[in-house]
Amino acid sequence: MKKKNIFAVSTMLALAVMGGGMLSSCTGDFENLNTNKTQVDPSDLPFSAQCAEPMEYCYPPQQNMFQFWTNLTIDLYGGYFMTPNGNFSNGDMGENRGHSGGMYENYYLHIFNNTRRIIADCNKKNQPGIAAVMSVVQAVGTMQATDAYGPLAYSSIINAESESTYRFDSQQQLYQSMLTDLNNALTAVKSMSESDKLILKSFDEWCGGDTQRWAQIINTMRLRIALRLSKRVDEMKAAGFDLKQIATDAAANTLAVSGKDVLIDKSLENEMWLMFNWGDCGFNANLTTIMSGFNDPRQPLYMSKNKGDIVDKNTNATTPKGSGYYGIRFASGLPGKPNYTANYSQWIDASNSLGVYAMPLPIFKAAESYFLLAEAKLRWGIGTESVQSLYEKGIRCSMENELSYRGKYAGITAYAPGDIDAYINGTTGQADFVNPGDATLNHAAMSSLCVKWDEGATNEQKLERIMTQKFLALFPLSNEAWAEQRRTGYPKFFPAYVDESNGDVNKEEGVRRVIYSSNAYDTNAEGIKGGIEILNQENTSKKGISGDKGGTHVWWDNANKGNF
Questions:
Q1: Cβ(397)–Cβ(366) under 8 Å?
Q2: C-alpha neighbours within 13 Å on the C-beta side of residue 103
Q3: What is the per-residue pLDDT across 165-196, written as a single tens digit (0 to 9) for each?
């Protein structure tokens, strides 16, 4: 297949998902803003720009794409955010195909379309180090996309099998490809030539050309994948992938070694501020009640207290401005905006007076590595350090890095003396959800476990502590948080109050995947058909749900196995 035809494959697959009524309630000219009418060949751009685009779009710095990418889907399902706008049916489990294509489009157009072409070109030019870095970026994007949808068109595009139908790979095949690519990339990065290092430094927005940091990212990804597939150990071993050994090999050199987050700090637009400014995003009650119950010192770094008086829906009671941290329960059955939730907790620096709109874009949180290592020790006995030590180091790493990363935008320069130690030794649990706008939505806390480590607890309780702190540390990376919550069940989320899924999602289980866009069907009908057949083969739902529905389980979300 010729170069321009290869570009057209991803362009067609990506732009196809952009339904006409997709964001009509807030961004009516979304298609005009995002459709590439000229189909400029990306290989005609400067090489640094070609490489920078997929790196940046692992956390999109463009407002319409950002909202479409995760804010109308995964951000709501992952427990961090919830829309105050009842017109977005995804917020009530009624998955909207027009709003569900953003991760698909972002992956194919901005990430995969660039990385696969650059990798092929660099291999031809004998630049294995650059190809390796781009294969890592590709793995990050692929993991985001498959964790959202399940099967994807992948190897059929890389191998140019067709110009009209793009065969889907199973999620198991996708994960095997990622592990193979990451293993090869680790070798290539470690032996990168000086000429490749100079090229890397010219575009590297993640690590500034530091190959040691790239090795740490690769190992963090390998450890992340090994644990993500912890309910598919036997199937992976049969395919030649020993997950425990992969985790063991990766554990010695993750991002925990540097302790530094991977952030893009290029004064790009951090669009989360705008999502709140538009009135289409608020905080999720799962996050606010956990942080409030734990007396978490990071809470004012993440969110504001209620920005104005809250008047309940019957106008009978008022909660004064600044009274506390208030989130919105997922699937609350809210009316359209504005409604009584309009003055709930907001994004920090709501006026942008401190420049939060250009806050660095988060790609990896170093604290995640500590929690991965803690679970690897708990599950497989990997390493010599205790689970408790790794758990507590993860909390400290998150506390320090969040202050460094977000402090100036929240107007906070330091925690109060002793706050971090007090948190680690805290004995309070999640707060009950008390909704000041509508008491019918109130719900008792989902967990009573405190932060303080308990060596005498069960493995299940230890895992819950690890995953709850990991959830808090990953903020605002909803892709990873949602995947881990689905895998382990932790933290426990409040159940949906209303259900507009028409049986496509189980109310107690919650949404398990994002559905494919209707326009994806229009352009690759045979590919999608085969992908859904694979999805059904990999599905383990115990609720009688199958097919391209929100309640169908992706392969690693194995309902046939518990955590231990």
A1: yes
A2: 26
A3: 899 999 999 999 999 999 999 999 999 999 99
What is residue 99's DSSP assignment? G
Q: Tell me the C-alpha distance between 491 and 365, whole Å.
A: 18
For residue range 291-346, what is the model confidence (pLDDT) as tens digits?
999 999 999 999 999 999 999 988 888 999 999 999 999 999 999 999 999 999 99
* Residue pointed to by tokens 């781009």: 134
Identify which of 121, 146, 331 has the alpha carbon closest to the alpha carbon of residue 229. 146
0.90 exceeded by the pTM? yes
3-state secondary structure 194-225: HHHHHHHHHHCCCCCCCHHHHHHHHHHHHHHH
Give which of 281, 243, 270, 228 is closest to 26, Cα–Cα: 281
98 Cβ contact list (under 8 Å, min separation 6): 19, 20, 21, 22, 517, 518
Q: Within 10 Å of residue 194's Cβ, how many Cβ atoms?
A: 7
Q: 358: which 2 tokens?
A: 């250009």
Please answer whether residues 415 and 297 qualify as being in contact, where contact means their C-beta atoms are separated by less than 8 angstroms.
Answer: yes
Neighbours of 551 (CB within 10 A): 24
Integer Cα distance of 290 and 430 in angstroms: 4
First to last CA, the chain: 47
- Can you read off the two tokens belonging to residue 237? 């071993």
Q: How many CA atoms lie within 13 A of 331 on its CB side?
A: 24
Query: Could you identify the residue written with the tokens 């967990």?
Result: 447
Contact 184, 132 (CB under 8 A): yes
Which one-letter amino acid corresponds to residue 230?
S
